[in-house]
Design brief:
8-stranded mixed beta sheet; 2 domains; binds flavin-adenine dinucleotide; alpha/beta; 28% helix
Length: 384
């Protein structure tokens, strides 16, 4: 064990949106003895590599509720947290090119409307009247929610970190957690490359490294990380307010505040493991597809292409909660491709669980890892 450098009630491993938002949420509840350990710089993991999309159009009631609470928090981010994160509610246009999927979209809209979400169902004709710059060939149906939107993930992380610091949290960057000290079934400290820190509770918010970090406590989490590539073009004048997304079409795209188009797609042939390389295959496949659907992209050049990791769970939904093996070990991982958008509500609820022993604002009990002990899990269908 290395030299003792400090003691905190709560030690958080990971300085992405989860770690920093959780530090902020804990401080908001009066728990200011909090440290965040980030092995690199803040936002260096999946958060700083993500598309920044924020939507509420999900296929299960619980996920719709979680996303709606997150949107409420994003709507007040500037006043509450104190940073402008380029949050813009330009809507999400969900495009379906598949008959079966379109039927599922209609069922999803019923669920979403029952939860009070204002969602429209659009025919291809309505889509082309509203967005004449989209090629609607082969489109079966679209849904649109104006209150969905996007934000700048770097600014969100920095905003949360600054607000948490102002309230007393400590944030240690370039500090890697190498070991977690478990004695008599309880975490008592974390060992880092900068020294040892005592603690009463530890939170795994390590994104792509969730499985390895959990192994430091001796708890197995069913997560795997998969590379996802993404690129950004040179800018055009702003005219494309929404995030356009298709699951059957396998793409998402939005225009950033400064005019660039950010877009990506999934690759079902990806193997699990950390891999930050980028491929020409990705650029070729995505550009051919996108130019056909969005002809105005034809002469735009790609400015930057990078990759990040989806930390996946078996049902493509986050794994959030408290371990029943090591009681003061908490986790918020396995978000698939939507951790940025749900992080405000997830961390609000997780902070309540840590401080009060119960989440009050949003139910997160359905996200506990124990759900995988049951044979049947309900897979979230709305993911790229
Ligand atoms: C290409 C792409 C597009 C995406 N688009 C969207 C989108 O539009 N909307 C959306 O909501 N989500 C999107 N996502 C998913 C989203 O990025 C993630 O779900 C989310 O950022 C997870 O945040 P996090 O804080 O949990 O993890 P991360 O941001 O990965 O943070 C974890 C941090 O933990 C640190 N860490 C790991 N191990 C240790 C250790 N031992 N010691 C100290 N620090 C450690 C890492 O360095 C990292 O910074 C996308 C992801 C990718 C890759």
């Amino acid at each position: 064990m290395s030299e003792v450098k400090g003691a905190y009630n709560v030690c958080i491993i990971g300085g992405g949106i989860t770690g920093t938002a959780l530090a902020y949420s804990l401080c908001n509840l009066g728990e200011t003895s909090v440290a965040v350990f980030e092995k690199s710089y803040l936002s260096s993991g999946s958060t700083g590599r993500c598309g920044g999309g924020i939507r509420q159009q999900w296929s299960t009631k619980n996920n719709v509720r979680l996303a709606m609470r997150s949107v409420e928090l994003f709507e007040h981010f500037k006043e509450d947290v104190g940073t402008d994160i380029e949050y813009y509610q330009g809507g999400y246009l969900m495009l379906s090119y598949d008959e079966e999927e379109a039927k599922q979209f209609e069922k999803n809209v019923e669920i979403q409307r029952e939860e009070g979400l204002d969602v429209e169902i659009l025919t291809p004709k309505q889509v082309s009247e509203r967005y004449p710059y989209i090629n609607t060939k082969d489109l079966v149906l679209a849904t649109f929610c104006q209150k969905d939107g996007h934000a700048n993930p770097h600014k969100a992380v920095i905003g949360y970190a600054q607000a948490a610091r102002r309230m007393g949290a400590k944030i240690y960057t370039h500090t890697e957690v190498l070991g977690i000290d478990v004695q008599n079934g309880k975490v008592v400290g974390v060992d880092t490359n900068q020294g040892y820190f005592k603690c009463d509770a530890v939170v795994n918010a390590s994104g792509p490294w969730s499985k390895q970090v959990s192994q430091l406590v001796g708890v197995d989490l069913p997560t795997e990380s998969y590379r996802h590539q993404i690129f950004v073009t040179e800018p055009l004048e702003n005219f494309f307010p929404m995030m356009a997304i298709s699951f059957a079409g396998n793409f998402y795209m939005r225009q950033a505040q400064h005019g660039q188009f950010i877009m990506g797609q999934g690759d079902k042939d990806e193997k699990p493991g950390i891999n930050y390389n980028v491929t020409f295959k990705f650029e070729k496949e995505l550009t051919v597809k996108m130019v056909e659907l969005f002809p105005f992209l034809r002469n735009l050049r790609i400015m930057r292409h990078w990759s990040g990791m989806y930390n996946m769970s078996p049902d493509a939904q986050p794994i959030i909660g408290q371990s029943n093996i090591v009681n003061n070990y908490f986790y918020a991982v396995g978000y698939s491709g939507h951790g940025f958008m749900v992080a405000p509500a997830v961390t609000e609820a997780l902070a309540e669980l840590i401080v009060f022993g119960k989440a009050t604002h949003t139910d997160i009990s359905y996200l506990n890892v124990d759900r995988f002990a049951n044979a049947e899990v309900e897979k979230e269908k709305n993911v790229v």
